[in-house]
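We treat protein structure as text, and this decision shapes the records that our systems exchange. Such a record has a labelled line for the sequence and another for the backbone structure tokens. The record that follows is passed on verbatim for readers who wish to inspect the format:
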Amino acid sequence: MINIVVAGAKGKMGAEAVRMVQAEKDFSLAAAVDLEGAGKKMKDIDGMEPLDVPVYTDMQACLDEVKADVLIDLTSPGVGKKHMQIAIQNGVRPVVGTTGFSEEDVEELSQLAAEKQIGAVIAPNFAIGAVLLMKFSQLAAKYMPDVEIIEQHHDKKLDAPSGTAVKTAQMISEVRDERPQGHPDEEEQLSGVRGGEHEGMHIHSVRLPGLVAHQEVIFGGEGQTLTVRHDSLNRTSFMPGIKLACQHVMTMSSLVYGLEQLLDI
């Protein structure tokens, strides 16, 4: 039995994670952490099943009082980093779906996990289909190196571009030399209209109500284009990946960045 704490339990993703943990026979929900949960039980939070599980506002207080094996963190970059540090220091294995970590953050957390010999997972996207999109894009970029990325998310998302878009660009960069794209004399008539840039690749972010998480990677070549697209239609799409990470992290002794590291692809 894997005892799990869910951070961000009142949010939409956190609530789905709570339901996933409850549905898995080998998982047990030990506690929840949420800024609005002071003195409450999960059964007191709107929309939750009547769970007699404590809710904490402070991660250290939670881990001082609750026996936990894994932390699922679905909060925000600053909070997620702090929670990871506390979890690793307390021998709890973090599985983090929060995006917005810098390369320096990941390196710092990797060093801490290595020192403590404890497993950790940070995944910009836990949807299996999104991970496949990244791998397909990496394969395509070997043969069609001119590429742009368009990512679309709900308008409550804090970071742009998304962690998935950044990870996709990084994976493409592993097989593609940096190269300029577009006309060498192009000029933006509206600042930012060409999006952000990573080694010549342009990344465009869309934020609108009604969206969940969507990305397309468009490749252009002589006389042809190729589009690879993934859509998460609701937040249940992320749960199989979170479940997989919770299972794998129990046997790991270091941090991995990206769900693809745990898949045989």
Q: What stands out?
A: DSSP finds seven helices and twelve strands in the chain. The chain has a mean pLDDT of 92. The longest strand covers residues 213-221.
